[in-house]
Records
---
Amino acid sequence: MDPILDGLNEKQREAVLAADGSVLVLAGAGSGKTRVITHRFAYLIREKNLKMENILAVTFTNKAAGEMKERIARLTGESTSRAWVRTFHATGLMIIRRNPETIGYPHNFVIYDADDSKDIAGSIMHDLKINTTVYKTGPIMHAIFRAKDNMITPGEYEKDAATEIEKVTASVYREYENRLRENFALDFNDLLLMPIRIFRDNPRLLEYYQDLWRYMMIDEFQDTNIAQFQFMKLVVSRDRHICVVGDDDQSIYGWRGANIENIYKFKRDYSPAVVPLEQNYRSTQLILDAANNVVNKIPGRMEKRLWTSRSGGEKIGLIETMRETDEARVIAETVRELSAKYKNSEIAIFYRTNSQSRVLEEAMLRANIPYRIFGGQKFYERKEIKDVVAYIRLIINPFDRQAFERIVNIPARGVGNVGRQKMIAYAKESGISYVESLMKSGEVSGIQRESVRKLNDLGQVLFELNQSLEQITPTNFVKILIDSIEYKKYIREFDETGPDRWENVEELVNSVKEFEESGDTSEKKTIVDFINSITLHADIDDLKEEEERETVSLMTIHNAKGLEFPVVFISGVNDGLIPHSNSRHSPEQMEEERRLFYVAVTRAKDKLYMSFSGSRLVYGDLIPTKPSVFLLDIPSELYDEIRTHSTYEPQRRTPGKGVGKFTNPPAAPKEEPAYTYEGKVGGAEKGSSVSGMDELKPGDRVRHPNLGAGTVKSVSAKLMQIEFDNWGLRAMGGNFLSSLRKIEAK
DNA sequence: CGACCAGGAAACGGC
DNA sequence: TTCCTGGTCG
C-alpha cells in the first residue's frame, strides 16, 4: 500500500514518476492535475530525500496553494509550513523581503495594487500637464502593465513609441517607475521583475536559491507571462528539474499579459517528457462532448481528447428569454427546483462581465435564495477600507506619497488640493517624510492655523504608531488608529451609506484579528504582514470548501477557473458578451473567448445550463441581441428541451424610472424575431417558405428579407448557422424560420 | 475649501 | 444605469 502512487491512473503515475529533468504535463480540464502536483511533490520528498523547502511549487491563486499544502501534508504526514507552495507574486515578494537592500529598498516597502497604480498615473499626468480627457489613465496603465509583463523597460518603450498615445505612455511609464521608487513602493509586476533583477545582479543569491529549490513545479503554465518564464528559466538554469503543468485550451488571461506561447516555447526549448492527461474525473461524457466541440475549432492547439468513464449524462438545459430580468428569474426558479436534489453550495452561476451580476443578484434576492458574489466591487476597493489601509501604509512607510495624498484631508482638516500639493513640495524640498511634514505644517505657507493644529496632531499620532509597529498586536494597532483619527464619526456621517461603511471597517478589524490568529501563531505577526497579505489577496481565495452558509456562487467565468460545481449555469450566452464584442476584430482574442467558454462548460460535473436573452440593457438602453455563435458548435442532440419564457407580467419599477425602451424597436414578432439584425439588403422574396428546422440541411440556399441570400452551414434542433453572401456567418434561433425562404442553389 | 450639480463617459476579464 | 470630472457658489 503506497498512498503516494496507488490510486493514480497510468498517466498520472507517469507524471509523478518522471522526477528528474524537464516534464510537461498537458492536463486537460478535470484530469486531476492538483493530484499530480501534490503526489509528485510528496514523491520527490520521499524518493529524493528532500526537505519541504527544497521544492518550489507555483500556483495560480492563494486558494490553490492552500489546498495543495493541505494535501501534501496529508500525504507526507509532515508539516508544510516551510514548503514553498505559493503564487508567483507571493514567491517574488518573499525573495524581495529577504533582500530588499539589493534593489535599494528599505525593509518597510509597500505594494501597490492596480488601483493605486492608476491613481499614480492620474497624479503623474496632472504633473506632466497631460490632457486627461484625451488620454485616460486606464488604457495608459494597461499599456504600462503589458510592457512590464513583457519586460520592456521605459527606455525601450520610449525608443519604439511611434504614435502619440505611445509617446505619452512612454513619458508616464518613465515617471511612474520613478514615483514607485520614491515611494519605496512596488507594483504587482515588480514582484516578478525585481527578483529577476536580484538574481541577475547577484549570482551568489541565485545560487543560494538554486541550492534551496532543487525542483520546481508550475501550475497553470498556459497563463504565465514572459517575466514568469524568465524567472523560471533563471531558477532552473542549473539543474533543469522543472515540471510545468498546463492546458493550452484553458489559456484565458492573454489580456493580462499571459503568453500562451510559453507552453509551446517550453516544449521547444526544454525538450521535456510530455505526459498528456486526458481522462476527466469531473464531468459526464455529454458535457465533455459539448466542451470538445467548442474547443476543437481552434487551430494549432495541442490535440487532446477528454474522456470519462461517466458515460451519458443529463442534457444541457437551454433557457431563452426576451429580457435579462426574465433570464435571471428563470435561473432563480430553476435553482429552486434543483434544491430537491442539490445543495445551494453545489450550484454556480457564471457570467462574462461583472455588470451582469446585478440582475442575477436581484433575482436571487427576490427568490430568497442565499447567494454569494465573487469579484465585482471588492472589499479592499471600498473607500472606507482604502482609507484605513492608506493610513496604515503611511505609518509603515512615511514616504508613501499616494497614501499621504489620500488621507491628509480625511477626515476633513481644511487642506484641499492646493494645500496638499504645497505640503508635498515642502516635504520633497526638505527631504523629510510626509509624516514629518505634518508635524512641521506650520512652516508651509498658506495653511490655515486651525489646519496646522490638526495636522500636527495627526503627525504626532502617526509618528507614535510608527514607533510601536512591532510592539502592538495588529488588531490593537488598527483599533488604536481608527480611534485616534476619529474615523468612526467621520465615516458614519459620510452619507446615507455611512452606517454600512462603518460595518465594513469593523469587518476589516475582524479580518485583522483572524489574520493574527491564523496559521503558525508562534511567529509574531505584525500589521506589516497583514498589509502584505491583503495586497496579494484574491476574492476567490475566500471560497471555502464547506461554506457554512449554504450559498449559490455567482462569479465571472475568469473567476471560475480551476473550480468545479455539480450544477453550472452559464448566463448571458449572447453574441457580444461571449464572445465579447471587444474581441470581434481579433482572431486571437476570438480564440481566447472560445477557450473561455470552454472553461465555463468544463466546470460542470453533472448538469449544465446555458441561458441567453433576446435583449440586454446596455447603459440603460434596451438593445436586441443574438444568441452566441458558440452555441452552434455544440451538437443539437446534446441540448435538452429549450425553455422559452417571453411573456411575463411587467416588472415593478421604481416610480419615474419607466420601463426600458428599445432604441431600435424590433418589428412585430410575426415578421421579426427577437434577434434583429442591422443591415438592409433588399431582394424579392421568392422561394418556398420554411416551417420547421428539420426542413433545412447544410448546403441549402435560403433568403432572408434583410440579410439576403445565404447558405445553411449547420442546423441543430434549436439553432442554425447561415453563411450570408453579403453579411457572413450568422447564428439564429427558431423564430427566424418564418422569415426565411428556401431558394434554388446559385 | 468643499458641497453640490450637470454633463459626459463608460464596464471585459483581475494577481 | 452608474461613475467620474469639472464647474459654480456659499
Note: Residues 250 and 599 of chain A are 6 Å apart (CA to CA).
---
Amino acid sequence: MTLAEENYLKAIFHLELESAGEVSTNAIAESMETKPSSVTDMVQKLAEKKMLVYKRYKGAQLTESGRKIAAGVIRKHRLWEVFLVEKLNFHWDEVHEIAEQLEHIQSEELITRLDQFLGSPDFDPHGDPIPDKHGVLKRTEKKLLAEIEKNHQGVCVGVKESSAEFLQYLDKKKISIGTKITVLGKEFFDGSMIIQVGSEQFFISHKIAENLYVQTV
Amino acid sequence: MTLAEENYLKAIFHLELESAGEVSTNAIAESMETKPSSVTDMVQKLAEKKMLVYKRYKGAQLTESGRKIAAGVIRKHRLWEVFLVEKLNFHWDEVHEIAEQLEHIQSEELITRLDQFLGSPDFDPHGDPIPDKHGVLKRTEKKLLAEIEKNHQGVCVGVKESSAEFLQYLDKKKISIGTKITVLGKEFFDGSMIIQVGSEQFFISHKIAENLYVQTV
DNA sequence: ACAAATATTTAGCTTTGCCTAAAAATAATA
DNA sequence: TATTATTTTTAGGCAAAGCTAAATATTTGT
Ligand SMILES: [Mn+2]
Ligand SMILES: [Mn+2]
Ligand SMILES: [Mn+2]
Ligand SMILES: [Mn+2]
C-alpha cells in the first residue's frame, strides 16, 4: 500500500462509521480535500486491488482486507499520538499532524513494541479507541454532550473534532478527558447550553456541544 | 524537501566524508542503488535549488544549505535509532530500515523533544556521532581495527558497515560497542588477524577488520 | 414525466522520480 | 597521439497521483 492508498482507505473507513452503506465520491473528496475526479481514479484502483467494492455512480464500500488495512493505519496513528503526549509531553492539540506522518511507517514489530512500551493503551489522547492488532475497534457507549438533558451530567470521554482550535477552546474552559460536566440549561431554539465545569458555569454553543463526547454516570 | 531529495542529499553527504572533492554521478548512483541517468536528473534539480553545486561531467558538491539539510536527516536517523534500541529494546541490527523511514518525519519540535527524551545522546547504537541541531558533526579520533599493530589494543567504538549480517557476526563473536580487542597476530599477505576478545581468541578476515572502528587507549 | 440541478466519470495534462537506449564527453591505453 | 573504454548526459517513456474541463448519470422539483 502506498501512502496515498492508505490515506484513502482510512478516510473511507471513517466515513463508513459516520453513516452506513456506500461512501460517495464527493464525501471522500471533501474529507480528503481533493477533487472528485481524483477520487474516482483512486477508488477504481483500490477496487482492482480488492480493497473495496465500487459501483459506478453508487459509491465505495471497504472489503475485509481494506477495513483491516485502514484499522491498522488508525491503530498506528493513535498509538503514536499516545507516545507523543505521554512520553514526549506534547499537548493534545499538537500531535495530529505529526501522527499523520508517523501512521505510515511500515513495521509490524515497531508497532508491537511501541504498544507494549506505552502499556497497551485503549484510547488515544482525544478519547478515540485504539483498534487492536486484528483491527477490531471496541465500541463504547458514549454520547454527544448535545444529547444530554437539562440537569443531567456526564464525564468528558472524547472529542469528535480534534482540530487545534477546538482543543484549545476546551483547554481555556478547563475541559479535558475525565472532566465532569453538568447541563444547567438548554435552549431549544439553537441547541446552546449553560454548563457547569468545576466551579465555573458558562454558555456553550450547539457546535461545541455536538463535538464533545460524554459518558453518563 | 521531498523524501527523494532528502535521500540524495544524505547520500552525497556521506560520500563527501569518504573522499573530499566532487562526488561523481556513478558513486551516487551506486550508493543509492539507482541509475546514473536518474542521478543526473536529480542532481540538476538540487543544483537549481541551491542545495549543491554541479558541474557537468565533474560531479556535485553540497552547499551550506544542502549540508545542513543532510545533517538534519542524519541527526533524525540516528536519534530514532537510539530510541528504537534504548526505549523499544530493538537489537542494533534491526533498526536501520525503520530509521530510514522515520528520518523523513517533518517536525522540528518532535526532534527537539525526542532528543531531550533520550538524554541528548552523542552517538547512535552503531557508534556513529549524532549531529547537533545546527548540523555540526563532532569528529572523534577513531581508527579502523585493520590499522592496529600486533600486540596493541583498542576499544570498539563503532562499525563502518552496519548491515544486519555484519552486526550479527559481531554478536556471535561477542563484540559490541565498548568491547576491548587485542591484536595478537596480523598476516601481511591478506590483512587477516588473530584477535583476543574477552577470554576468547580467534581469526578475523581483513574485511572484518576494516569495518570495525576502535579507539586506542 | 421532463427540465434543471447535482453528482460522477472520462479525457487529457502536469509533476515527480525513475528507467532504457543512444549520444557525447572524458579517461585510459596501446 | 589515436583509439578504445568508461563515465556522464540527453532523449524519450512510464507509473503514481493529482488537476481542469467536458461528457454522462442520477436526483430533484415542477
Ligand atoms: Mn489524530
Ligand atoms: Mn486522536
Ligand atoms: Mn542506520
Ligand atoms: Mn546507525
Note: The radius of gyration of chain A is 19 Å.
---
Amino acid sequence: MNNNNQEEQNLSKANFVRNIIIDDVKNNKHNGKVVLRFPPEPNGYLHIGHAKSICLNFGLAKEFHGSCNLRFDDTNPTKEEEEYIESIKNDVQWLGFGLGEKIFYTSDYFEQLYSFALQLVKAGKAYVEDLTAEEIREYRGTLKEPGKESPYRNRSIEENIDLLEKMKNGDFEDGKHVLRAKIDMASPNINLRDPVLYRIQKAHHHRTGDRWSIYPMYDFAHGQSDSIEGITHSVCTLEFEDHRPLYDWFIEQLGIHHPQQIEFARLNLSYTVMSKRKLLQLVEEKYVEGWDDPRMPTISGLRRRGFTPASIKDFMERIGVAKADSSVDVALLEHCLREDLNKNAPRVMAVLRPLRVVITNYPENQVEELEAENNPEDETAGTRTMPFSKVIYIEQDDFMEDAPKKFFRLSQGREVRLKHAYYVTCNEVIKNENGDIIELQCSYDPATKGGWSDDGRKVKGTLHWVSEQHALKATVRLYDRLFTKANMNKGDFKEFINPDSVEVLENCLLEPSLSTAKAEINYQFLRQGYFCVDSKDSKEGALIFNRSVSLKDSWANQAKK
RNA sequence: UGGGGCGUCGACAAGCGGUAAGUCACAUGGUUUUGGUCCAUGUAUUCGAGGGUUCGAAUCCUUCCGCCCCAGCCA
C-alpha cells in the first residue's frame, strides 16, 4: 500500500458536516481549531444511534487534530443516575475513543449559568413567572395562533432579581415560579415564545447534592455550555434545528462565544426501536432481560451479542451523515460484522442439533488427532487438532431421507466429506418407534484421511462434526430480530415484538478446544455463523454461547423455492 | 393549514450547470475441504411531479405534491 492509499484510509468518507469543518479549517475560522462534544443525558443506556454521534464527533476531532468533550447534560436530577454515567463512559471507551483528560458536566456550570440568568434579568430580558404550568401552556398559543403575554411579564427588574434569588434559596415550593426569557409571544417559532429558563426542583442532584433548588432547562444550559467550553461546531440532531434561533439569542444577549450548530438526521435501524423511552419500556416491562440484552440495539447489548467496535465504526462510515430522515437496513450492520469476523474469527466445529453417527468400519477404541486450519482467511492463524473416533455427531439438517438431487449433504447411499477427517457413506438409518431418525450407520474410507482423495472422486458436500466422547456440552442462544416489522413509526411498537427473537438450544456439542473460550472473543461455528461466550450467564462447565450473526445461507434461500 | 427541515435504485448515499459514484440487498456465472469467503457480471434513459431558463439541468427559477419536527416547569 502506498502513502496515498494509506492517507485515504485514515480519512473518513465525505459528508456535509465534515465538509463544513474542512472549509472552516481552511478559512481559519476558529483559528483553525476544531472542538467538538458528545453531550448525552445520563438517563439511560447509549444505543447505536448515539454511536453514530460518537463516531462522528470523536472521529472528526481525531481527523482534524482537535478535541471532543464527553459532557453529561445533567440538568434534570429527577431522571438521571450515576449508573448511566458509568455505562456511558464505558461504552464510549469500548468503541475505542479516549475520554480525554477530563469529563465535562453541565452541572459544573450551574454557578455560571445562574449568573447568565441574572445578567438577562438585569438587562430586562428575563422575568419571573407566577402563572401555573397549565396557564403558561394556554398563554403560549398554538402552532397557528400567537400566544399572549403573561401579566407578570413586565415586573420591575428589582422584583425579578428578588424573586429569582428567593427561587434559588429555596423559598418557594416546586412549580410555584419559573424564570422565563422575554422574547416574543407572537413568534411563529414557538421556542421563542418566552421559553422557560429555570424551574424550581427541590431534588437531590447526583453531583451537586442539595445545593440547588432550581435547575436550568436544557435550552438554557446547552448552548451556553458549548460556549463555555469553546466548542467550535455543535453537531446535533435535526429536531434542534428550530431551537437554534433561541440559542443564538442567548449567545447574543450574553455576548459570549458563538459555537456553530450543525444538525444531521438521527439513525434509525430496521426491525428495532431507537428511542430511550421505548428501550426503557422494553426493559421495565421485561420484554428483554435488561439494557444489555443481546437483542437490544444498545451499545452494551450489541457488545454482549458479539458485535465488535470495528464493525460498528465501519457501519457508521458506510451509512454516511445527511439530513434526510432515513432508516438503515439492519442487514448492512450484519454485513459489517460478518466482514470483520470473516477475517478475524477462528473457525471451530459445533453441532447445534446433534444426530448420532456410528462409523461401523472404524476401529472400536481408536482416537485420531486430526489437523484443522483455524482460519482459511488468515494464514497466520495456524492449525489445531481435533479428535476423531468411531461415534460422532453431525447436524440433523445435514441428513435427509429421499433427498433431492440439489441436496449436497448426507442421505442413504450418498458420500460426503467430514471436514478435515474422512469421506463417509451412509448405509443405514435407525429410527425409534415414532419414526424419528435417531442414528445413522456409516462407513468411512481410510484412504481419504484429512478429507482428500487422489482418485479424482468428487464429493459435493462437506459437513462439520464432533466426536462423541470428546464433545463439550453447551447451551447456544440463537438470536433473531426483536421486531417483526421493519419500520414502526406509527401505531404501538409492542404489537410487533417478535415472539421468537431468541431460541435456546440446550444440548449442543462443541469441539473440545472451546473449553477455554472467553467472552468477547468471536468464533465462527463452521457453516453456521459467528458465536461468542455470553459475558454474563456462561460459567465454566456450563458454557453459554450467543449467536452474533449467522453466515449467509444461500441453500436456505434455494430450499425455500 | 404558523414556523423549521427533507424528497436521487428495495435500503443508505455521492453529485452542487457538462450529460447518474459507491455500499448493502437482490440475481446469474466461476473458484472453493465452510451451499461461507473470494472473483466476474447484471440491476435508476433517470433524480417526488409539472412548467420555465440554458447549447446543456438531479444541480438555477417557479408552481404543486408528499414526508418529518415544534404548542414539557423533558433532553
Note: Chain A has three domains: 11-264, 276-346+474-560, 350-464.
